[in-house]
Amino acid sequence: MDASREELQALNEELTASNEQLNQSNEDLSDANVRLQENIAQLAMQSRVLLSGAVMTLFLDRELKLRWFTPTMRDVLPLAPGDIGRSVADLVPRFQDKDFYTDINHVIKTSEVREAIVGNDEGRSFLRKTYPYMNEMGLVAGVAITFADITTDRTRAEVALRRNQSWLSAQKEAFQAAMNGGSLDTSLGILIRSLVDQAHDERRCAFYIAEGNVLHHVVGMPDSYARCVDGFRISPESLACGLAVAT
Predict the structure, then answer these.
(1) Model-level pTM?
(2) pLDDT 10s digit of each residue in the chain, 247 long?
(3) Distance CA 121, CA 163 (A)
(4) Over the range 156-190, which residues count as b (16 or more CB within 10 Å of their CB) and which as e?
């Protein structure tokens, strides 16, 4: 009976230890389930963002076969759900990009990100980026390609560049006129024409010189206006125009 009692006590201790381990396992499983649910929710949110049309993305495996793409990718590639599993080389892009396939192969081999600015026949411009897609082992498992519409930004940049080039050209022409002995109104008139031409509206531009508290028109306004302004005395009692010019 004593031996049986000791054996029973030993079994009870083992059972208690097993229950503690089971409780700990249940807690670990519960924590893992919470993390899993959080990951699922995060993946669902990411999927909704990608599928919302805000992002143009496609994924290729190491064999360069199409695995997944967002609906907006149809703006640059003729894609359909049945294209999943097709080689990207079978697809005909709707944009001009001579390095498209070359960059994909380069990323697969080197894991280096490649990017380029491409355009389509409709006049839209895109920033194309090609990334390596890494697996859990840190190895390249495929390629991710994104397109961002930069049509508006690029148009603004081109307009600004043309304006800068026009203004620099006008400055050069004005400087050369002055170096060749041209009058002040000739040189400044070149700058005025450049400014007015770039404005594309009805605004006017003029140069004045203030000698002491007297204003003198140089160039820019019609003669009838210039005669009225020339010799205008600048003082606190002057009209708003005079105060503005003085400021």
Answers:
(1) 0.49
(2) 888 888 888 888 888 888 888 888 888 888 888 888 877 776 665 566 555 555 788 889 989 999 888 888 888 888 888 888 999 888 888 888 888 999 999 999 998 999 888 887 777 888 889 999 888 788 888 899 988 888 777 667 766 777 778 888 888 888 888 888 888 888 888 888 888 887 767 777 888 888 878 888 888 888 888 888 788 877 766 665 655 555 5
(3) 26
(4) eeeeeeeeeeeeeebeeebeebeeeeeeeeebbbb
Name which of 154, 151, 152 is nearest 162 in CA terms. Answer: 154
In angstroms, the CA 93 to CA 102 distance is 14
CATH 3.40.640.10, applies to 54-149: no
Q: Can you read off the two tokens belonging to residue 67?
A: 């695995």
